[in-house]
Specification:
By secondary structure, the chain is of the alpha/beta class. The protein is about 25% helix and about 30% strand. The longest helix is centred in the C-terminal third of the chain and has 14 residues. About 40% of the residues are buried.
């Protein structure tokens, strides 16, 4: 795929209601992420937010999206169920999905994974080390042994997710907790990557290595081929081997083959 079409979705609520968030992300978290992704060769990037018609995720937009990134926190309940169903269907068809930070609690992520996606948390501005535990994974390309984040919100285990296909990153926090903060799954024909660092009151998305991980995730999550789930009645003319029709067998009351 020569061009990867990315849609960066953000509810865009905190930036307009919290002065501290507005100071760090004056144009919105989505714009910081989009600017970083636009620097990548071969990326075509658009943004969408909660307040747009259909939350910016119309059928046409989703058809033109190879990978969708999702950031939400304050307004999960305001996301329309029909839009969630529309996005879910596109993931099953092959669209990649990158779920960021509090997106773990979104309707979309919980629907796709089928579990609570609940976790432990604490906001105390503590240090986070994002350790690479699968250095050979494409999402970890160009990342050293760990990413140091000076101030972060703690996310801790247990994390109510199904067993990941891959655990790429494991976070450690200053208070001692650990968290599976970089995990992948496949659902239908779609690839999903969850990456936890990104609390809105800290400038985490300005961090070059965090931006690198997200860009790597986008490249990894691109559609891999046609959807696997394409049921249809197959005409007998398409059978690869000759089919010989036989009359159904008839048995008597004792189970013996009748003649």
């Amino acid at each position: 795929m020569s061009t990867i079409r990315v849609t960066v979705w953000n509810e865009f609520v905190h930036e307009r209601t919290n002065p501290e968030v507005a100071r760090i992300y004056p144009d919105g978290i989505h714009e910081v992420l989009a600017r970083a992704l636009r620097q990548q060769e071969g990326f075509e990037v658009r943004t969408a937010t909660l307040g747009e018609p259909d939350h910016g995720l119309t059928d046409e937009v989703l058809r033109q999206t190879d990978v969708l990134t999702w950031w939400g926190h304050a307004a999960h309940a305001d996301v329309r169920d029909d839009v969630v169903a529309r996005v879910h269907a596109r993931v099953l068809e092959g669209m990649g999905l990158i779920v960021l930070h509090s997106g773990h609690w979104s309707k979309l992520f919980k629907r796709i994974l089928g579990t609570s996606c609940a976790l432990c948390w604490r906001e105390a501005g503590e240090r986070e080390r994002v350790w690479v535990v699968d250095p050979g994974h494409p999402i970890a390309a160009g990342i050293d042994r760990c990413i140091e984040i000076e101030q972060s919100e703690m996310y801790g285990e247990p994390f109510g997710i199904p067993t990941p296909d891959d655990i790429v990153f494991l976070s450690w926090f200053q208070g001692g907790e650990v968290f599976r903060g970089g995990c992948t799954w496949r659902r239908g024909s779609g690839r999903i990557f969850y990456f936890s660092p990104g609390h809105e009151t800290y400038p985490i998305y300005h961090h070059p290595q965090i931006q690198r991980v997200i860009a790597n995730g986008v490249r990894w999550a691109v559609p891999q081929g046609r959807p696997y789930d394409t049921p249809r009645k197959t005409p007998i003319e398409e059978a690869r081997e000759p089919i010989v029709f036989r009359a159904p067998s008839v048995h008597d009351s004792r189970g013996n083959l009748a003649h």
